[in-house]
Amino acid sequence: MKVALTGGASGIGAEVAKKLVAQGHEVTAFDVTRPAEGAARWIEVNLNDPASISAALDAAHGPYDALINNAGLPPREGLESVILGVNFLGFRSFLTGFLDKLAPGAAIVNVASRAGAAWRDNIDEVKALMACAPDEAQAFVEARGIDHVRAYNLSKEAVIAFTIAETEAMIARGLRMNSVSPAAVSTGILEDFKSAFGDKVAKAIGRVGRPGAPSEIADVILYLASPQSAWIKGQDITIDGGMTALAMSDALGLKST
After folding, report:
1. Number of domains composing the chain
2. Can you tell me the distance from the alpha carbon of 119 to that of 98, in angstroms, rounded to the nearest whole number?
3. HSE-up of 102 (CA within 13 Å, CB side)?
4. What range does the domain containing 30 cover?
5. Is 139 part of a structural domain of the chain?
6. 136 found inside a domain
């Protein structure tokens, strides 16, 4: 397969690239930083810059068999508009601009987060973000008083909702798209999540025994990018070691005595 991967320089993306190359696939990485290894080609892109996205799209030559949208920023104070810009608005611009570079039957995998699980409860704000133009992130943040934690959660809620909303359009184009929602993965940005979400993260990790490994997330992403998952469309797959199940069991009183 010929695969396009955003955010391939570190963390989950670097593991995805390594596994793809080990399986004999050709990887083009799109990132602000050159990957240390793995990708056959690197195209620089800043997803918070429409001009950079346009240039990167011009430099990409398909057809590609899969697009993996992994690039994103963690919840860091002071970066509210940039988080929305990179994690959703830029992600959407890049993805929609890339569609004509995909081969018939190609797969798209979007990396969301368990932090986006409340998208149904926040659907009005999700729709408001989805209606924004790429240059409206700062105005959106200011108008709604959004802090860095909400910016992150909202950006991932929008990724999940967008994936669902575009399912019919993707089917009509002969493509398929799904998202994955990891939680508490042992990468360089895990400390950002611990700082942003506090004791909730430590408690959740403690209950399931450990954080996830990037390789475990990568395995699910590769499956969704492969022909073996051809009948999976418009789904969000949570990868959290059981955190969601434990929280749901608590909330619904399902735990066995």
Report:
1. 1
2. 25
3. 24
4. 2-189+213-241
5. yes
6. yes
- What CATH number does residue 50 fall under? 3.40.50.720
Residues whose CB is less than 8 angstroms from the CB of residue 204 and which lie 6 or more positions away in sequence, other chains included: 183, 184, 240, 243, 246, 247
* SS3 label, residue 114: helix
Q: What angle do CA 209, 213, 216 make, to 5 degrees?
A: 110
User: pLDDT truncated to tens, each residue of the chain (257 aa)?
Assistant: 999 999 988 899 999 999 999 999 999 999 998 886 778 899 999 999 999 999 999 999 989 999 999 999 999 999 999 999 999 999 999 999 999 999 999 999 999 999 999 999 999 999 999 999 999 999 999 999 999 999 999 999 999 999 999 999 999 999 999 999 999 888 877 788 888 888 888 899 999 999 999 999 999 999 999 999 999 999 999 999 999 999 999 999 998 76
Instruction: Match 């989805």 to its residue by tokens.
Output: 130
Residues 6+ apart with CB under 8 A from 95: 67, 69, 108, 110
